[in-house]
Amino acid sequence: MIHYRSILQSALRRSPIHTRFLWRPVVRSVSTAAQPNASREPSRWTRRLVYTGIFGTLGIGAGKWLDNKISSPLDPGSLEDQMEIREIQRVFDIGLPIVQELRRNPDYVEKNVYENFADKHKTHRLTSGPLAGSRGLGLQKVFWNDKEKKIISVVFLGPGLEGWPTMVHGGALATVIDENLGRVAIRHFPSRTGVTANLELNYRAPVYSDNFYTLHTTLDQERSTDTKAYAKCEVRDMAGQLCVEATGLFVVPKTLKLNMVGEYF
Question: CB burial class (10 A; 0-12, 13-18, 19+) of residue 143?
């Protein structure tokens, strides 16, 4: 049997016309392919270097953040803890707009907390003992407005207060809120002392550790008496978002003798 296809292909290979058409596409494909590759190669390597830098930086940053989160909190009083406390204080002094605003307002007086306790007594208190240091309540400052019977407290909540990773424990928040409600209540009582009778909290948004927050605490002057004080508190982040709402009732015990807290916070 004659293979007509083989004969036809053999004839075409010998044909000058076929040779011309075969040659031209090859030349065109080589010339058109070589020029774009030459122009694209530098930009391709540039993009690769840029992507490498971006993702490398992100990876290093994420690694440091994760290492900070899973490492043990600093021991209170250690050299590292003291350095961290100084950094927290520096950010408080120069990095928080609300602090600058309150310091310019003559109606607010800035105070430290626990001024009525000696250092040896502070270690026996939850918030100034076990929760002290940069891992806990790294900073607490009180701005008191006597005209409005209002306190704005600025606090730093460290990683040792976490419940879930990166989130402050609700019980730790309740402790800080309870103390701030008690501050306005005790300043209202003529006896300058009192205890918590009722505390109610509503958690509105997550509160994250290693951050500053403000507690806006106000006395309900219309409902409060010499032995009962009603107060409310709002916890807000540095952007002003409401995180926690709380109300409290404080009383002066009739049968229990308590030490006078005094004019301090």
Answer: buried
Task: Give 205-227 pLDDT, tens digit per residue.
Answer: 999 999 999 999 999 999 999 99
Overall pTM surpassing 0.90 (yes/no): no
230 within 8 A of 210, measured Cβ to Cβ? no
pLDDT of residue 16: 45
What is the C-alpha to C-alpha distance for residues 159 and 174, in angstroms, rounded to an integer?
16
Tokens encoding 144 = 């008191």
**Residue ranges of the chain whose pLDDT lies below 50:** 1-34, 65-66
Q: Are 153 and 140 in contact (CB under 8 A)?
A: yes
Quick check: is 58 in a domain?
Answer: no
**CATH code, domain carrying 137:** 3.10.129.10
Per-residue tokens: 18? 């076929």
**pLDDT (tens digit, 9 = 90+) per residue, 162-178?**
999 999 999 999 999 99
Residues with a catalytic annotation lie at: 178
Residue 40 counted as domain residue: no
Beta bridge partners of 236: 214, 242
In a domain, 242, yes or no: yes
b vs e for 234-246, b when ≥16 Cβ sit within 10 Å of the residue's Cβ?
bbbbeeeeebbeb
- Does residue 53 lie within any of the structural domains? no
Strands (E), the chain: 108-112, 137-145, 150-157, 195-203, 211-219, 228-236, 242-251
Question: Containing domain of residue 182, as a range?
Answer: 75-251
Structurally, how many domains does the chain consist of?
Answer: 1
Amino acid (1-letter code) at residue 101 = E
The tokens for 45 are 């390597």
Alpha carbons within 13 A on the beta-carbon side of 196: 17
